[in-house]
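Folds vary. Our protein:
___
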Amino acid sequence: MPETQTRAALYLRQSLDRSGEGLAIDRQREACRELAQARGWKIVAEYPDNSVSATNGTRPQWTRMLADAERGRFDVILAWALDRITRSMKDTERLVDLAEKTGVRVVTANGDIDLTNDQGRLIGRILSAVARGEIERKSARQRLASEQRAAQGLPPIGPRALGWEKDGITLVPREAELVRRGYELILSGGSLRSVVRLWNEAGLRTAPRRPIGSPKDAPKGGQLWAPYSVRDVLRNPRYAGLRAVKGDVVGQGTWPPIVPEETWRAVKAMLEDPARKNTPSTARKYLLSGLAVCGQCSAAINAGGLNRYGTRTYKCSRTKHLFRRAEPVEDYVTAVVVERLSRPDVTDLVTGARPDVTGIQTEATALRRRRDQLAEAFAEGDLTRSQLLAGTRRIETRLSEIEAELADAVQVTVLAAFVDQGNVQAIWDGLDLDQRRAVVDTLMTVIIHSPGQGTRALRPETVEISWKTA
């Protein structure tokens, strides 16, 4: 009886395919096919995991290969090298279990590994341990290099950041200006959606990457901005010229900042404020929804939708005792706002005692340097652990105070556009709805009363203004 031909399955993997062309996979395939032909084996399946890590990612083809092996689809797993198949002891033990259960062998261009006997298992485990050690050494080198770059104030390595060239140093003027306008929008009461609209309409796109769920060999491309991606940019200390490691500022960067540190601190504080909520979708059409209160029960006034005549309305959020047309109320509040901001003393609403920003930043730099010195002294054995913790705690407390002071340095910016600009009505008309709502919220509380039975014309006494800023 003729001998049955050995069935081989090719497992092909590379960790990172920068070009997207799968050339390393092709080279592995060619070498494995030559080996199979030399041994007279029949290739019955291929399992290519392109641009997939063996240590920190899901490998769909690896999982499918193990399942097919258990079904008896092939006799040999053929790969370029063992570290293409496994770089962890856990995966090695899965192969050992598979070999003992099905008798499948692992063959590489570097030699056979028979995991069905104790000698082969020993060799496989040793090779996996060596591969794991290489990963850990590489990780340590990368971490050390990253820490060294941070200590030198050099920009992080990675995708090009919006606003700079690939070198992380040279500004892209148009992008930098749009980033600045994004910060200004938030400070002037705009929402993340306002920045999304600005950047998308200007043609800006996110860093190129593959769409979620696309094949590994799909081309990368920039995506439209969304609120979450805009938030990530505006919270990044890089835009204030600050170097950070895992989100913690460690010092000044060597690149030109796009916004002052106090601007970044203020926007970051606003975006991380737990009280900050995304404006409900209905509020995008209503100036006073969620801001005004009911004159009878003090509950919030919400958008009431359209009445039977197709007119926008407001209603009390608690009961049905208040229901009013929106447009006359909004026109009246707008007229009051424009009149107030047209007065000569509008500057007093905006300007205040501005802290010494330069002095504060100098102090923060000195504190961060002192924090590093404490860590070095502890490493050299000159400080005890309790001394290190106590010193670091004092520094961190003062740094937190400084960050709050810097954030306060640019408050009330929501009204800054109206200072020394002349035509207040034109400025108001140029604001988006989120910014107008922020102006109203800064200046006043609007108390809406029932207009009375059969009343059509707006009576000013039914729209009460309680000033927050004199």
Remarks:
- Residues 118-151 form the longest helix (34 residues).
- The chain has four domains: 7-135, 173-272, 281-351+413-467, 357-408.
- Residues 281-351+413-467 form one domain.
